[in-house]
Description:
GO molecular function: ATP binding; DNA binding; DNA negative supercoiling activity
Largest sheet: 5 strands, antiparallel
Radius of gyration: 40 Å
Number of domains: 4
Subunit structure: Heterotetramer, composed of two GyrA and two GyrB chains. In the heterotetramer, GyrA contains the active site tyrosine that forms a transient covalent intermediate with DNA, while GyrB binds cofactors and catalyzes ATP hydrolysis.
Family: Belongs to the type II topoisomerase GyrA/ParC subunit family.
CATH architecture of the largest domain: 6 Propeller
Shape: elongated
CATH topology of the largest domain: Neuraminidase
Structural class: alpha+beta
Distance between the termini: 118 Å
EC number: 5.6.2.2
Number of helices: 18
Keywords: ATP-binding, Cytoplasm, DNA-binding, Isomerase, Nucleotide-binding, Topoisomerase
Strand order of the largest sheet: 37-34-35-40-42
Helix content: 25-40%
CATH superfamily of the largest domain: DNA gyrase/topoisomerase IV, subunit A, C-terminal
Strand content: 25-35%
Amino acid sequence: MSDLLNNDEVQTINIEETLQNSYLDYSMSVIVGRALPDVRDGLKPVHRRILYAMDKLSLSHGSKFKKSARIVGDVIGQYHPHGDTAVYDALVRMAQDFSMRMQLVDGQGNFGSIDGDNAAAMRYTEARMTKYAGELLKDLEKNTVNMIDNYDGTTKEPDVMPTRVPNLLINGSSGIAVGMATNIPPHNPKEILMGLKALLADPNISLSGIMQHIKAPDFPTGGIIFGKKGIMDAYETGRGRIKVRAKTHIEQKAKKEVIVIDELPYQVNKARLIENIANLVKDKMIDGVSEVRDESDRDGMRVVIELKRDTMSEIVLNNLFKQTSMQTTFGIIMLSILNQEPRIFGIIDVLKHFINHRKTVIIRRTIFDLEKAKARAHILEGLKKAIDIIDDVIRVIRASGNEEDAKNNLVSEFEFSEIQAASIVAMRLGRLTGLEIEKIENELAELMKLIEYLESILKSEEVLHGIIGEEFDEVLEVYGSNKRKTEVEDDYDDIDIEDLIPNEPMVVTITHRGYIKRVPLAQYEKQKRGGKGKTAITTYEDDFIERFFTCNTHDTLLFVTDRGQLHWLKVYKIPEGSRVAKGKAVVNLLNLMADERIRSIIPTTDFSEEKSLVFFTQKGVVKRTNLSEFSNIRSNGVRAIVLDEDDALITAKIADQDIKYLFIVTKLAQCIKFDIEKIREQGRSTRGVRGIKFKHEDDEVIDANIIANDEQEILVVSEKGIGKRTSAGEYRLTNRGGSGVIAMKMTNKTGKYVVGCLMVDETMDMMALTVAGKMIRVDMQTISKSSRNTSGVYIVKGDDVASVSRCPKKPDEEDEEDDMTPIDILDVE
């Protein structure tokens, strides 16, 4: 031991430094030699080696198939020193039409399925290259790329493929290296080639110019890309996130609807998705589904989701998008290798590097062809010269002792080169005929033209660009008919078009089943009090308009749900419809839970700190929060109020500094008015305080409002269409949490319940909606003013009232004729 320690050859090393260097070497080996694709041909080393081995086995598109095991054996034996399973898995993926936008391997046998089934063993399957793969290897034999030593130095392999197609973008790539990862989506080959042509024509083209040709990724499984912002981010910076949805359609079957899935997002396992949906239905996470089955066949995908009767397909579909892989997020990271270094590229950079690669390939191919043409021309020139002096040539050859002497004598006596002398000695006598001599002269003339053309390529950038463009056209002719598989739809969150939309007054309606629309206010004409009204919407038999309000297109809508969640949306992002249109399901515009219902929709133009949002619950709880806390809302909304388990939100109002009182009305006509300052402002995630105490256990808050002064008038409306307006001062001011006073005298004519209360404004009309979907517009000034403990006058006859709201007055116009009887005054004190 002492001898070993005293040995001068023993070196002291720093273990930390050694580990760092070793791990760095390993990391770079994985990054460059294993996990990441080259920006030029879009291939990882294993894919490149598989294609090269198949090329060496003459497995072109038109050849016979060979066993996959033979291909894998050649790959691991000569080029790829890793496991045969890893190589075969890579080969299998190259043959799957649901994994590759353009397959590189033409497989025969079981190569797996979109359900996650494994491929058959390599001894059972056969393979050859596809026609598209041939484009990646074209001109490989012409010294167009560098050939490097294989892992044991016994043979050579290409450093990169001389591809004629930008495979990195067409087929995409994914891989995890050490400390980095790549995830490049596939694209449509026609769009990519058109983008290359545009970039070649204008090297300074903008991203928007490129995107005129390259719309978005194009996945082999189709689907729908939802939103364009993530695409633009990825194309500009190399990083972005896009939402991909399954493509579905709705079928009507007897008295129920059926959701059919036609296409899935990229890399989603169909069998696992069906199992997930079934488990969600079993656990009651998704309601309304009676059966899920797979009817897919050789003609395409068809997953059927049968719904129960009276179930809205749009709500179920929206829940499926939220809770299953029917909607996925594809995180784009355009990371690839350039000059042995990993880098993130924008799409224009990728296209530029491919064009530069094509320039290098064409220049090297041209040099190869030029040298070959010059060598052949040199031989033909020697043959032509020899024929001209054939008698002297024959004499010298006959006088020579052997073939080698004949070559040397020709070189020394006639100044032929050694190559020319060798070809002359090997020349057959048949070449001395006149026809053969003419052929030599013609071939030589053609070669001289070819040499001149090849030299022009090397001298002129313009000629070089012309050849690149011609090759793009050739590839386009073959693959240009490949249609886009993935659709692209706008996401409302990605669009900012407010400046292009006129700021006009709108009526926004929402039905009991959750359909929302906006209609220009001008479509509703003013009628006399007591009129029958005009149809405001066409609804399902069991549906009716539940809420409506007026606002401008540039306003922001605050959606407050019964669960105390708050969402917001610009008015112009609500689909506009005709006066009788059903509208669009609000669940498609907001991220709502399955049984979550909107209770208040509040238009606002700003989120000032001088304003507050006041919440009123069914059990009489009141809460006040500064409006500025709701200026930035997440896509799934925020918690606005913490509710008791048996409570629900009824409504919410915006209050500014002019508001003095809060006014609460119950279903059984009880009401309370108290000072707003009795409610201090609280944060978002708080419960609130008691606002009113009920006299009857079955009573509950039906509506609430905010009051600026006692001169304001309050309009209270009952379920039978009876309404009255009363000065706010007639309602006694009490303490918060009391029982309050009577809001309206209830009789058989008024009905049992109150449906709402409004603040009367001279600049506003009232709109009442009936449960049948009719809307009537009334000047509130024409409704009789009554004291607090009265019933009022008829506003609507013939139908029960669903809700009431205010809307701006229209310019005076001739009132429509109606056949209503004179208004009856009821129970006036």
